[in-house]
Amino acid sequence: MPLALLALAIGAFGIGTTEFVIMGLLPQVGADLGVSVPTAGFLVTGYALGVMIGAPIMTVVSTRISRKNMLMVLMGLFILGNFISAVAPVFAVMLIGRVVASLAHGAFFGIGSVVAAELVAPEKKAGAISMMFTGLTVANVVGVPLGTFVGQSAGWRVTFLIVAALGVVGLAGVAKLVPDVPRPEGVQLRHEVAAFKNVQVVLAMAMTVLGFGGVFAAITYIAPMMTEVSGFAESSVTWLMVVFGLGMVAGNLIGGRFADRKLMPLLYTALGGLALVLLLFTFLASGKAASVVAIFLIGALGFATVPPLQKRVLDHAHGAPTLASAANIGAFNLGNALSAWLGGLVISAGLGYAAPNAVGATLAAAALVLAVISHRLELRPTRATAASAPANLDPAAASGQSAAPAAAAAIRS
After folding, report:
1. CA-to-CA distance for 23 and 237, rounded, in angstroms?
2. How far is CA 260 from the centre of its chain?
3. Residue ranges of the Major facilitator superfamily (MFS) profile domain (predicted)?
């Protein structure tokens, strides 16, 4: 794999760390800035909204400059946002810092996916995309736990300063290692927007929303679920999240390995398996061993869909994939927000902390249905061509003359 993918993975590692580490530091941040924990939670919401809004806006900006330069601009925003967060004197400034950092998120992964795919042969695109996303998944195994530990022991401001430093490393890597590939000739904003007219692009994004909605319906409420239902101590939640992160790493690597060769079978397996695991988890959450296995599988099956879905968007965007790719990253965050809201509704309705798993199972099953629909629509032209083939045969073929060699070859084989 090209070294440029390492630079992209480092940037992804920093982005993944800053996105998720705040969840473990909300009590410290709230106490220091004089707000309640629920109010501090807007730092999570604000980031997610910034990703969804920033992905298309920053990608539109990128239509005027090279992809390498845009990746450097995005890493600059990431560094600035995390530095603002680290030195924020009041909550409002901290929130501004989070939003500034989030503006880089969607566009970095969207443009980075396009760049990663262009660095390798066509049959290795998904593997390259997977390599970049490995930085995000490893962040949940290494960056988030370490960042939480540092924040709890040395102060949360130190954590965000370290994350900003990671951004500097990522920026240097992009500047040094990523080639300055010129944008395709003639591709303008209207071409990028036109990609959304493709039903396959829209279906892939819908699968992203629903599939990741299934994952985060469970994971958003994993702390109360594990302590109140499974009987784990609060201190166990950190290593349970590491288990989830390990699942993410495994699933992402598996997805990258098989998406280039068996994309749709992989999606069927991952989405179907995710729906089944979440359904079983609804009833087995009271068991500690079952919970650990389920958390790992949710991470693995969920992130096994990332490379194939991102590749599917790139393949169907017809030469103008940047905006669609970035929008698909926003779709991940839309799925997170949707599932968190729906999970909160079923908990508020008195159905218990395990009920969000059932919500996740429903969302994953809906994504599987869309995958089947997408594949059938894709096969229609092939079937139509096959059905019309006999009518296009010449008279000799129609009389069976040209079939003889084929039949003889079949007999010999």
Report:
1. 12
2. 17
3. 4-383
Which of 123, 149, 172, 154 has its CA nearest to residue 4? 172
Q: pLDDT tens digit string along 121-177?
A: 877 877 787 788 888 888 888 888 888 888 888 999 999 999 999 999 999 999 999
- Which domains, ranges and CATH numbers included, belong to the chain? 1-178 (1.20.1250.20), 193-381 (1.20.1250.20)
Region of residue 184 (phi > 0: left; psi between -120 and 50: alpha; otherwise: beta): beta
Do 74 and 152 meet the contact criterion of CB atoms below 8 Å apart?
A: no
Please tell me which residue, 334 or 229, carries the higher pLDDT value.
229
Q: Between residues 41 and 199, which one has the greater pLDDT?
A: 199
CA separation for the pair 398, 395 (Å, rounded): 5
* 3-state SS class at 135: helix
pTM over 0.70: yes
C-alpha dihedral sign at 178, 184, 187, 192: negative
Among 19, 325, 323, 327, CA closest to 167: 19
**Counting beta carbons within 10 angstroms of the beta carbon of residue 307, is it exposed (0 to 12), middle (13 to 18) or buried (19 or more)?**
buried
Predicted pLDDT at 169: 93
b/e 224-243 (16+ beta carbons within 10 angstroms → b): ebbbebbebeeebbeebbbb
Write phi, then psi, for 287 (nearest 5 degrees). -95, 130
Rounded distance between C-alpha atoms, residue 274 and residue 268, angstroms: 10
Q: CA 172, 173, 175: angle at the middle one, nearest 5?
A: 65
In single-letter form, the type of residue at position 332 comes to F
Asked whether the beta carbons of 62 and 324 are under 8 A apart, the reply is no
Task: From residue 89, give the alpha-carbon distance in Å to each of 13, 28, 77.
Answer: 27, 14, 20
